[in-house]
User: Which sequence fits this backbone?
């Protein structure tokens, strides 16, 4: 089954304790992206990757890191989490950013993060 | 910079009645427009998109949306609402800026009452 998976689905942690949220897709998609969802703000892009070893900042990159060593994986790293990073996080992918640009995104199930 | 506005935080409609969820956008050049739906404790699911061509776009679960270039709108509609349509709906736009893939609106919660 074609899908985007995220782990963990739920995480409660404390300020300053490094954490990683994994994202993996099995569709051989080139483009992957991380969003955070906050009430009333919709989804805001954190980082994106157009292909392996190519990453760039989205709208709200502060406090986050990413890597793209393999095509299928795009982990989100919080080196020193803070309470304002409490949010619902989604990973998404599309086949490619080239061409019409009209591809719809495939979203993972989300990771609910609470930072105390 | 591109932006999306969903002016209603919540839309209430009775089952069987038509529904409209509003969306307006601002983008440079021709837009790519999308609607996504989010059910409780689930990720976002694609509903429909406008790329080019016919202004009326039909999508999943009986939903449709009308692209209006002069009003920069892309309202989501359904002729007859179901209780199971109750969910959070997001409008999104992508312009020609290759860096920022999609800009989402704040979301509209649709409540369909029996």
Assistant:
């Amino acid at each position: 089954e074609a899908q985007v998976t995220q782990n963990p689905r739920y995480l409660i942690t404390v300020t300053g304790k490094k954490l990683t949220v994994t994202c993996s897709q099995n569709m051989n998609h080139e483009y992957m992206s991380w969003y955070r969802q906050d009430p009333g703000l919709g989804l805001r892009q954190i980082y994106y990757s157009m292909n392996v070893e190519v990453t760039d900042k989205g709208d709200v990159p502060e406090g986050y890191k990413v890597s793209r060593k393999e095509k299928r994986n795009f982990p989100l790293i919080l080196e020193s989490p803070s309470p304002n990073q409490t949010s619902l996080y989604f990973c998404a992918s599309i086949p490619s950013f080239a061409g019409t640009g009209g591809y719809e995104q495939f979203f993972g199930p989300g990771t609910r993060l609470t930072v105390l | 910079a591109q932006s999306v506005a969903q002016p209603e935080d919540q839309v209430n409609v009775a089952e069987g009645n038509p529904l409209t969820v509003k969306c307006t956008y601002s983008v440079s050049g021709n837009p790519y427009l999308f609607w996504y739906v989010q059910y409780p404790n689930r990720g976002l699911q694609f509903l429909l998109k406008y790329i080019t061509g016919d202004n009326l776009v039909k999508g999943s679960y009986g939903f449709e949306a009308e692209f209006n270039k002069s009003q920069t709108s892309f309202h989501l509609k359904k002729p007859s609402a179901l209780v199971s349509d109750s969910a959070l709906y997001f409008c999104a736009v992508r312009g020609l800026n290759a860096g920022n893939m999609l800009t989402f609106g704040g979301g509209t919660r649709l409540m369909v009452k029996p």
Notes: The two ends of chain B are 41 Å apart (CA to CA). Chain B is about 0% helix and 50% strand. Chain B has a mean pLDDT of 91. The first strand of chain B starts at residue 3 and ends at 5.
